[in-house]
Amino acid sequence: MARRKRIYEGKAKVLYEGPEPGTLVQYFKDDAWALDKQGTITGKGVLNNRISEFLMIRLGEIGIPTHFMRRLNMREQLVREAEMIPLAIMVHNLATGDLAARFGMNEGTPLPRSIVEYYYKSDELHNPMVAEEHVTAFGWASPQELDEIIHMSLRVNDFLSGLFLAVGIRLVDFTLEYGRLWEEDQSRIVLADEISPDNCRLWDVSTNEIMDKDRFRRGMDNVEEAYQEVARRLGILPEGDARDLKGPAIMQ
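RE: above sequence
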């Protein structure tokens, strides 16, 4: 078998050259990072692959363009190759984490409305928060592209908030990434990367129990079980199957 060409490796995923021009294979790892903390969440890559697949498909059904094409196996999915915009778009529904700390708010305080923030994607600079002026002045996105990104992000928030609420999960905040798909000299903005407990804060509606990577960040136990519970509530993981997932237990 020919060795695949690795295009890029990040903290949670590896991108390989796809089988057709303009495609990539996105591989989900079990590696976990939080600031300078590194570890492994067993089965995370399998679960995030399926959770992200499920959510990307649902978003596509309501007209949100994404880079997702199809899942290939337990840890890989085929995606369209996009020119990534170097921004993380964070949507806040409750005051948590850094937002709560910056403004002296109690963790979990409801916000008057959803707040959208921008962060420049740079591990070396620790992903600094930036304003719209930085985005447009440095040419990371045009004003028109940024307007489209904000509009899409708020639509994603509305849809996912309702989807999670229906299974007893509160979408506290989450981070999205976008890219450009080019057709000749025309481009369009698409949702890219992933949507999973790695980049969403998810709390149980009744108990406020944390069901995402914050458990890893805070040194809490049952991290794997939290990811499994999210998948189970979304109907991806069979009820009552609490095994660490390496592949076969995920529903096809």
